[in-house]
């Protein structure tokens, strides 16, 4: 079925060409990184995780969010999700691929990735994170391939695929749970040392991922006339609403615990994010923007008249996506290192090579997603 992705109109190939240009630019900077090392990035001895890991953390949530359409359709027989489920699975595939690429470039040298595979350590959370991501990718590839092929042949999917689908549901939750454990398991980082890290991760995943999926559905409706229907969109927007409310509630709990307890080692990280420490205030405008956009999005989503308005809903989804991308990306990762465990304040900012390589990975992910969507739309048009 891959040949179906090699046909398209002028707009389609212009978009593909733009993605290849972005990937070529990023590949050039990645060759520089291979030659010169991670010194060309903004990371340092004090801030060892930066923009790459921020994107990885965010995209794991996007990948896990596919469960929000898979579970109602396959387990509860919610037939209205029939058109949108395959889109969610394809979004998960592209997101997991991007996750792996961000880990790949963050490790600096390719042979380090090979060493992780050659010398696995079951006592390491990173090992389980790698295993869960690779397993989740394999599950989604099998499920989407088998179900789409059955749809193309106008046949019911084989019976053996149902247990695989059921397995993918808890697996989706596990990939983001293990990612949260990567942070909350680091006792030397007070900002991450919280039991609510995993619920926060899941809440952000179940709001940002479906928000991106709805934006894709709106774009497909406009450009290809493929319509998943208003009822699935309304149902998914309600899920986003509940998840986003939970996300803001969990953030409020974190702020209350840190500020009311008045424990310096916990409070100082939030002070850095929302107030700044001296002249170290790079993230202050970003974090306030994240909170404000999150609150505005909840207001737009919680009012039924606005949530069901197909002109307002795309804006609300975009605000959800941007708000969580800022908070769960740079805010979460960088604030864990600033101030350092010794109290030293080293501000981090991504460099041009980092941004270019990251843009290239996003472009590759969108290339995969575009081709998968093209295959699905072509098959459904034939059917």
Describe what this molecule looks like in 3D.
By secondary structure, this protein is mostly helical. The protein folds into 2 domains: 1-184 and 351-377, no CATH class; 188-208 and 226-348. Helix content is 74%, strand content 0%. It contains 14 helices and no strands. It has helices at 10-36, 51-64, 67-75, 82-106, 110-118, 125-152, 161-184, 197-224, 230-261, 264-274, 284-302, 304-307, 313-335, 352-382. Helix 8 (197-224) packs antiparallel against helix 9.
Give short descriptive properties of this protein:
mainly alpha, 383 residues, 2 domains
Element pattern in H and E: HHHHHHHHHHHHHH
Alpha carbon gyration radius = 21 Å
Net shape: globular
Q: Find the count of extended strands (DSSP E, 2+ residues).
A: 0
Helical element count? 14
Unreliable stretches covering 5 or more consecutive residues: none
Strand content: under 5%
What would you call the structural class? mainly alpha
Distance between the termini: 14 Å
Outline the biggest β-sheet: none
Q: Percent range for helical residues?
A: over 70%
- Mean pLDDT score, rounded? 87
Count of spatially separate domains: 2
What topology emerges from the helices and strands here?
Blueprint: H1 10-36, H2 51-64, H3 67-75, H4 82-106, H5 110-118, H6 125-152, H7 161-184, H8 197-224, H9 230-261, H10 264-274, H11 284-302, H12 304-307, H13 313-335, H14 352-382
Helix pairs in contact: 1-14, 2-4, 2-7, 2-8, 2-13, 3-4, 3-7, 4-6, 4-14, 6-7, 7-8, 8-9, 8-13, 9-10, 9-11, 11-13
Brief rundown of the structure:
This protein has 383 residues and is mainly α.
């Amino acid at each position: 079925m891959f040949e179906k992705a090699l046909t398209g109109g002028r707009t389609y190939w212009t978009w593909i060409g733009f993605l290849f240009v972005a990937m070529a630019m990023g590949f050039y900077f990645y060759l520089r990184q291979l030659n010169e090392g991670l010194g060309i990035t903004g990371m340092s001895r004090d801030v060892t995780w930066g923009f790459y890991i921020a994107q990885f953390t965010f995209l794991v949530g996007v990948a896990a969010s596919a469960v929000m359409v898979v579970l109602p359709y396959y387990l509860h027989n919610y037939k209205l999700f029939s058109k949108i489920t395959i889109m969610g699975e394809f979004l998960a595939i592209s997101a997991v691929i991007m996750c792996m690429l961000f880990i790949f470039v963050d490790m600096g040298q390719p042979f380090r990735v090979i060493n992780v595979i050659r010398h696995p350590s079951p006592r390491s959370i990173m090992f389980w994170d790698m295993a869960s991501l690779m397993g989740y990718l394999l599950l989604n590839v099998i499920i989407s391939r088998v179900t789409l092929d059955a749809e193309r042949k106008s046949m019911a999917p084989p019976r053996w695929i149902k247990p695989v689908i059921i397995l993918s549901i808890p697996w989706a939750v596990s990939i983001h749970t293990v990612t949260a454990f990567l942070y909350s398991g680091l006792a030397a980082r007070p900002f991450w040392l919280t039991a609510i890290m995993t619920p926060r991760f899941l809440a952000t995943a179940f709001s940002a991922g479906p928000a991106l999926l709805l934006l894709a559905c709106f774009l497909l409706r406009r450009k290809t006339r493929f319509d998943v229907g208003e009822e699935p969109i309304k149902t998914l927007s309600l899920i986003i609403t509940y998840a986003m409310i939970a996300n803001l509630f969990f953030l409020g709990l974190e702020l209350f615990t840190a500020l009311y307890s008045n424990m310096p080692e916990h409070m100082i990280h939030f002070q850095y994010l929302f107030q700044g420490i001296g002249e170290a205030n790079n993230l202050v405008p970003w974090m306030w923007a994240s909170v404000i956009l999150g609150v505005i999005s909840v207001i737009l989503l919680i009012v039924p008249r606005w949530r069901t308005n197909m002109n307002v809903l795309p804006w609300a989804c975009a605000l959800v996506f941007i708000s969580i991308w800022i908070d769960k990306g740079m805010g979460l990762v960088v604030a864990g290192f600033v101030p350092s465990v010794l109290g030293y304040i080293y501000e981090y900012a991504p460099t041009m090579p980092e941004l270019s390589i990251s843009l290239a990975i996003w472009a590759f992910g969108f290339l995969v997603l575009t081709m998968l969507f093209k295959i699905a739309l072509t098959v459904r048009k034939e059917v």
